[in-house]
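Supplementary Note 3. Input sequence used for the single-chain structure prediction.
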Amino acid sequence: MPRIAAVALAFTMLATACSQAPELPANADAELIEGSEIFRARCASCHGSSGGGGIGRPLTDIEARLSDAEQRSVVVNGRGTMPRFADVLAEHEIDAVVRYTREAL
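The predicted structure, written as discrete structure tokens, is reproduced below.
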């Protein structure tokens, strides 16, 4: 049984890695670019490069499910299997990645 779980996890991660990240608009500001970079480095391995989910929940249309403050709280404090990022990311980095997921995914 552990082999099946490992194969399923590997397949999920491969499928996640192969999905396309959204392109930022040419006039994207520094915060949105920073959010994109943080997402790619810290979030995409679980949420998918396009935010469609994988190990972690999909983030597409996150604004329909969580307010900005609620989403920020999940990033800061973690929830379920999602780790907390309060000790990993600075406040401005959390703001940038939350904005990126709300505006670009």
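Residues 2-103 form a domain with the Cytochrome Bc1 Complex; Chain D, domain 2 fold (CATH 1.10.760.10). Helices lie at 2-18, 30-47, 68-77, 91-103.
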